[in-house]
Amino acid sequence: MQGPLSVWLVKHGLVHRSLGFDYQGIETLQIKPEDWHSIAVILYVYGYNYLRSQCAYDVAPGGLLASVYHLTRIEYGVDQPEEVCIKVFAPRSNPRIPSVFWVWKSADFQERESYDMLGISYENHPRLKRILMPESWIGWPLRKDYIAPNFYEIQDAH
After folding, report:
1. Distance of CA 139 to the CA centre of its chain
2. What is the mean pLDDT of the chain?
3. Contact indicator for 121, 99 with CB cutoff of 8 Å
4. What number of other Cβ atoms are within 10 A of residue 67's Cβ?
5. SS3 call for 124
6. Domains in the chain, start-ordered, CATH in brackets?
7. Cα dihedral 103/109/138/148 (nearest 10)
8. Can you tell me whether residue 12 is helix, strand or coil?
9. How many CA atoms lie within 13 A of 140 on its CB side?
10. Are 92 and 65 in contact (CB under 8 A)?
11. pTM for the whole thing?
12. In a 10 Å sphere around its CB, with 0-12 CB exposed, 13-18 middle and 19+ buried, how is residue 65 labelled?
């Protein structure tokens, strides 16, 4: 089932895939990485002027990585603003997604955290470097196939 934003995107010839609605009734859309920057600018102009959150997750071991954006239309006098959830999937072998820092400045630390934990490279981000882990850290700790360095499982601990 398509929501109102999906219908509007189709009407204007913008490529996306509707993923339905979440448990709160918020429309969820999938955008291809190569289309994400231009659609982000269009959504900002359309009125989605607030990036409420950005996060990322590992879909499955050895599978895709996802970058998730929760956008809101903040307008004066509106008690229930429109919201949308955008998911951008990237291949694990070369996870590159255009940064939306230049559209929503609040993406700065959030994209850096996703880079730090999952290794998603946000193209054109002005300061893309580790934010939680030391620069010398090897690997991406939140990937499902990550093996912690120097990890020794304690056997028979009582």
Report:
1. 19
2. 93
3. no
4. 27
5. coil
6. 2-152 (3.30.460.80)
7. -120
8. coil
9. 23
10. yes
11. 0.91
12. buried
